[in-house]
Amino acid sequence: MSKYNFAFFDEGSKREIRRATLKAIAIPGYQVPFASREMPIARGWGTGGLQLTLSLVGTDDVIKVIDQGTDESVNAVNIKKLIKITTGIKETEKTAEATIIQSRHRIPETELREDQIIVLQVPLPEPLRIIEPSEYVTKRLHADQEYSGIWLMLFEQIMQHGRMATGADHPVLVNDRYVMAPSPIPRFDNPKMHCSKALILLGAGREKKIYAVPPYTKVQSLAFEDYPFEVEDMSARVCRLCGAKGIFMDELIDEETQEKYYQCNDVSYCLERLNNENDD
Amino acid sequence: MYQQEQPILTVKSLNKRFGHGCLNCQGVQKEKLVGNYCPFCQTVYACQNISLEIYPAEILGVVGESGSGKSTLLRCLYFDQDISSGEGYIQGYKDGLVNIFNETSQQKRYIRNHLFGMVYQNPYLGLRMNFSSVGNIAEKLIGAGSRNVDFMAGRARELLKKVNIPDYRMKEAPENFSGGMQQRVQIAKALSNNPPILLLDEVTTGLDLSVQANVLDLIKRIQRDLKISMIVVSHDLGVIRMLADRTIVMLNGRIIEQGLTDQVLEDPQHAYTQQLVYSLL
């Protein structure tokens, strides 16, 4: 594939994305606009994350791509293929081996290290969009730190359902300044962002925004004094394959017996556990 | 002693114009305006050199025909619109020493959320129509820094009861309410954080007479119970007569007459005020 420059982009494009990334890291939680490029995959299919990954990747890097916990879904595989074809770098499924992890809607169960970067794909980077359609206005609301709208949304959920009903993408306050959409990760993953050792980058290709949570940054999930933030309750769930507990589980139905069972959502974590068992 | 009392809000020579102005209308030749409008550059001088003071627990009435700058004045005070020039001081904010119009927009939000309540003529401007009534009131409390759901829901219920919204409709959205009910929800919202100053913009216009009486009664009662200062903008002299202690008459963006309400209505001095008062009777 010598027709393409290393990592698909020309060097000018990479520089522009890196500059936006640096700015994003300097202002934790602030959405930096960037010139989202035309990609060989459609916008809304992970182009934001992919552009970040391609601008970061070097010849020594090892890449891991996950899509909602799995390394082998069509999306993850195709993104991995594109990166591999245009860079020739190594790919892995083991979280600990990767230097760059691009992910859709999950943060891996294995704790990340300082020398790793996690890139999250974001469909809707603006947490205030549900209550304010205008970008002109939301920018000003961020500048004024005026977040009563998003709090009101949570308040309304409590009025209607008796609890905060955000399934995923529960808004967070970063570094006591900006309210940020953590991308549609389950609430279960929100605490992993707080003081994360790894750099967290978030890219929205369709919405043309890059934002970041630098390592060891305070990330608080929004919650009221009398209605504290709660993660999904996984305590009673045990993985049918590896027997893991206390991590994020998928609920599945056995088609023959119609019984419910649970399985690790993070497939590579599950596999590693199974492999280690065999070694013993 | 009344004279030694400090005003809670002081406004000094506030100006608001829409447009850039030109040689014709700026500076010496200001008399060439047609009403408040410059025929050469199409600039509208909505508020010209407005100075006023409001004392604690006082109701100040503002009357004038439509287009006289009443609503613009209120919107400028509530920071909905930027002013062109002028000064404003609030007793409870930085000891009344800082011009509120020069503050940053963050500080202006603070003043809006903590020191002002606003009731718009059109409830669509003051309420989120598709959120619950309780939520609407909570919004103002959230803005003022509250993060306790039980407290906010309790306060919202208390206020909605005060404005006669029945219990079983409190969780309903204002878009399902009648105009009078929406207006009452708006008043409840404006009162939620006990603001020292309440701004009321034509609150009774468009309501039928019995509802009007209801709302006016409510405002009067609130003022008596909570000792809130208010600016009441209305073109309805009946409303002004009933509510206001002092009254300002505006025409073409200027204050043309001011004084005690009875005095202004019984013995109007300016030709326009005379016309206004007699056209009512």
Would you kindly provide a written description of the structure presented here, covering whatever features stand out?
The complex is a heterodimer of chains A (280) and B (281). Chain A has two domains: 11-125 and 172-219, Bacterial phosphonate metabolism protein PhnH (Rossmann fold, 3-Layer(aba) Sandwich), CATH 3.40.50.11310; 233-280, no CATH class. The radius of gyration of chain A is 19 Å and the shape is globular. The model of chain A has no long low-confidence stretch (mean pLDDT 94). Chain A has helices at residues 11-26, 47-56, 74-87, 135-143, 148-161, 190-193, 267-279; strands at residues 32-33, 62-67, 90-91, 100-104, 117-121, 172-174, 178-180, 199-204, 209-213, 219-221, 249-253, 260-264. With 280 residues, chain A is of the alpha/beta class. Helix content of chain A is 29%, strand content 18%. In chain A, a hairpin with a 4-residue loop joins strand 8 and strand 9 (209-213). Chain B contains ten helices and nine strands. In chain B, strand 8 (246-251) and strand 9 form a beta hairpin. Chain B is globular. The mean pLDDT of chain B is 89.
Quick gist of this model?
The complex is a heterodimer of chains A (280) and B (281). Chain A is of the alpha/beta class. Chain A has helices spanning 11-26, 47-56, 74-87, 135-143, 148-161, 190-193, 267-279; strands at 32-33, 62-67, 90-91, 100-104, 117-121, 172-174, 178-180, 199-204, 209-213, 219-221, 249-253, 260-264.
Determine the structural class of chain B based on helices, strands and strand pairing: alpha/beta
Strand order of the largest sheet of chain B: 5-6-7-3-8-9
Low-confidence stretches of chain B: none
Q: Provide the succession of SSEs of chain B.
A: EEEHEHEHHHHEHEHEEHH
Helical content of chain B stands at 25-40%
The first-to-last residue Cα distance of chain B is 36 Å
CATH class of the largest domain in chain A equals Alpha Beta
Strand content of chain B: 15-25%
Mean pLDDT of chain A: 94
- Give the helix level of chain A as a range of percent: 25-40%
- Rounded mean pLDDT of chain B is 89
Radius of gyration of chain B, taken over Cα atoms and rounded to an integer in Å: 19 Å
